[in-house]
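Record type: monomer structure entry
Structure origin: computed from sequence
Chain ID: A
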Amino acid sequence: MNILFAASEAVPFAASGGLADVVGSLPAAIREKGHDCRVVIPMYKSIRPELRAQLTFLTNITVDVSWRKQYCGIFTGIWNGVTYYFIDNEYYFGREGLYGFYDDCERYVFFSRAVLEMLRYIDFKPDIINGNDWQTALIPVFYQVFYKYQQGYQDIKHVFTIHNIQYQGSYGREVLNEVMGIPLYHMGILEYDGAINMMKGAIETADKITTVSPSYAWEILDPWYAHGLDRILVNKQYKLSGILNGIDTNLYDPQKDDLIAAKFSAAKPAGKKACKEALLQELALQEGDEPVIGIVSRFVSHKGIDLIRFVFEDLLKLGCKFAILGSGEKIYEDFFAEMQWRYKDQVSVTLGFQPDLARRIYAGCDFFLMPSQSEPCGLAQMIAMRYGTIPIVRETGGLRDTVKDNGDGDGNGYTFKTYNAHDMLDACERAKACFDKPDEWNALVKRAMECDYSWSTSADAYLDLYRELAGH
């Protein structure tokens, strides 16, 4: 099968979150199973010069953005065995940063249209186009309205993957004609709650809708999680399914990782202790055998930071130390800074994001705390387990699908159900009780490290979906 992934970001070219990790890893895993899987993303200014130097210019075309005709350059390059295409337009993508501009609607309308126009000029006819999040949501819409019956475009099937339903691409009705150039008689495809909603358009027109974990697929049918889209999703749930993301097991491998103090594995776990000692030293925390809790997160309320804040000093009384890395809302940044000032032997806080330090936290901590209010999939808990760090998570989305509570002595972490600070504290107390029993603890760490969250399993699930659509 020929599969084209369309996305607004992909590691290593442009990244702001988990979407980039998925698009940087999944196509390679699909390709290893014998299919031609390619990726198309915008040509951002922020793409590093050494990566840009490896790209080849294919051609330039014009793309309709309503009544305007805009320049579009097409570049290509190969990374990790996967062919990438880059849509170039200096006006739309030659800026610092990826999102957050006044004309984001127009930028990704252009990108979605350019992806379909590009197919005339490259030697690749996809059986499936898999769009990701609202930035590519118009691809199946444009296909249905303009391209479906054109020569060379017949029988292309569309899959649309929702990574985060909170961001939907919702704009005023005027963009339909003025920016998208879609006739008013097609307004029903995109109109939702009095606005033009791009994600709603993709839910209407794509052949299949996927999310990044099985639990998230049924959670978003509930108004609590769906940010208003539950009504349309309940009607379309016959084409909705959830496929759990994986992680890049070559990138996150404690046996080969040069960024950590000592290498280790489930069979030879001795290096884990050296990683912990090195982390305590690096972060100027008091050395000792007490458990270290790692937090690598954005400091925003839906990540459960307010729960941590509420019982933080109770956690310190358990004898725990904290290695915290992240940034976000000032109220949380200030809180953690104050805790570090008050308990400098027990609490280390690093504001910002440092990927190398994140890796050392994953490798050197005993626990990884992730009490999210909602979590479509979550990669951090899988990475933590890969490094033998036991996750303590709330049962939501992908966290529910990947972490099984160790209450019966056969799990790989500790979980709690309700969004409640004392329930979280109880999970931490149970985890600490296990930590104090070396034999049980070592068995738990071994189970966690042996969990398989590689992309290979996810790739099989995506391929089953694609085969169903393409009839292969």
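Annotation 1: Residues 455-470 form the longest helix (16 residues).
Annotation 2: The first strand starts at residue 2 and ends at 6.
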